Amino acid sequence: MPEQLNLTVSLRGTRDVRENYQLFRLTGLLDAFSEPVFRKVMTKCLDESPHHVILDMSKIDFLDSSGLGVLVQLAKKAQNAKGSLQIVSNPRVTQTVKLVRLESFLSLQPNVDAAIQNIGANA
């Protein structure tokens, strides 16, 4: 059963821990306002196992440079823990990520199933 994440008024989400990955489903805005709380919650979750993380951002309405920065930090943290960060994207998120040429580093995926398969392929 997914647990509710205590984020901000503008960013909500759930966390579902499976055998070899954690799935986060996010809705709302990942911006300068929500980024500090998001970073704190995600860092805590990444310190726990498993270290493969899927962020379902298909319902994110807005992503700014603060949000991009925290995604890069989380990807590095997951890699250092021998895990990975997969991001399920939507056109708005994809456009923002491609603008700064981070699409391959942030491992954008079209859906959750593709992200899970990608973890299996790299495990």
TrEMBL record:
InterPro entries: Anti-sigma_ant, STAS_dom, STAS_dom_sf. Pfam families: STAS. This is Anti-sigma factor antagonist. Belongs to the anti-sigma-factor antagonist family. Residues 11-119 form the STAS domain. It comes from the Bacteria.
